[in-house]
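Chapter summary example.
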Amino acid sequence: FPGRISVMSENVRSMVEIIRYVAGQGHRRIAFIHGEERGFVTQERIAGFYKGCMEMGIRTPEEYIVKGKYHQPKESGLATRMLLSLPTPPTCILYPDDYSYLGGLSEIEKHGLSIPQDISAVGYDGIHLSTLLRPKLTTYRQDAEKIGREAVVKLIEQIEQPGKNQDEHIIIKGELQLGDTVKRVAE
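The structure predicted for these 187 residues follows.
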């Protein structure tokens, strides 16, 4: 929100990094199931998705960009079902978060497909669960601990210095956590 302090991940850059990696593995048909459209985070991630695709020379059909909800596996499962039913389905699906990936995984398995042999997938957040899944999920790991720490510092500053500038946006760098859910393809 304007006039407020925010502490968040590099949503645009992170999506560009994901697209570069996936495209580097040969994927050109990349779909993105995103979170709620009204949110600032979602708008940044969508912008990052398109920026990454443009940089890599990837033209993305409109039907490859699907609305979902954060932390709602069922929504992502339904979106995955729709993507798999397309005449030319994607070779890789990006999920709005690691929990939502679970809904996509379930739908992919219902179709008799497997990750990464038949379709590749990438999550977002880098929660501990992503390292326990098999195959291990490729995801963008936000530094949630650092984001939380910085938010607490800013909150304490606001309590102790109520007149201090409240229009500050702090971006915390994350990193792509490579797993086993993105297969190299030749398209």
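To summarize the output: Residues 9 and 172 are 5 Å apart (CA to CA).
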